[in-house]
Specification:
This protein has 157 residues and is an all-alpha fold. The protein contains 7 helices and no strands. It has one domain (2-156). It starts with a helix and ends with a helix. Keywords: Membrane, Transmembrane, Transmembrane helix. The chain crosses the membrane at residues 66-89, 96-115, 135-156.
Length: 157
């Protein structure tokens, strides 16, 4: 249960960061596209030339958010698998931040190519900027893993 709460908490922190970026005029990911991709994946299609041009999927917005939070929980489980269960009792920043930064591999090497953006945003007008933005977002997620673990530890104490 702790891993679920930590994963949700870290994802909320990342989403708050993304909301701030959006308010500052920075384009952020539309979660409906994640849902659209997942919906097509369930039908056997992994890659798209452009996820925006792909046929919409019923409930894609909700599905996108569900996949987003499930992924956050999976990444929290990966942190505990890497750092060991003792990390839950005494959370430290370094493992959380390292795992958070490592999770940037998912968008750069799986999601972006599958959505038609190329490996590491190579088919976008500003690949380096997009990669750095993804890296920053996932560093915030890693920091969120740490903060959420501290909160869970404090509540359990």
């Amino acid at each position: 249960m702790e891993i679920i709460v930590i994963g949700i908490g870290a994802t909320v922190i990342m989403d708050l960061w993304l909301m701030l970026l959006k308010r500052l005029g920075v384009k952020t990911l539309n979660m409906a596209f994640i849902g659209r991709w997942a919906g097509h994946l369930a039908q056997g299609r992994f890659a798209h030339a452009s996820i925006g041009a792909a046929a919409p999927v019923p409930g894609e917005g909700a599905l996108g958010w569900l996949v987003h939070y499930a992924t956050g929980i999976a990444f929290a489980a990966a942190l505990v698998a890497v750092a060991g269960p003792g990390w839950l009792a005494a959370p430290t920043l370094a493992p959380a931040l390292l795992v958070g930064v490592a999770t940037v591999g998912a968008p750069l090497f799986v999601m972006q190519p599958a959505m038609g953006l190329g490996v590491a945003s190579s088919k976008t007008p500003a690949p380096i900027r997009n990669c750095l933005r993804s890296l920053a977002n996932h560093a915030v997620f890693g920091f969120g893993l740490y903060l959420s673990a501290l909160l869970v530890k404090g509540i359990a104490a």
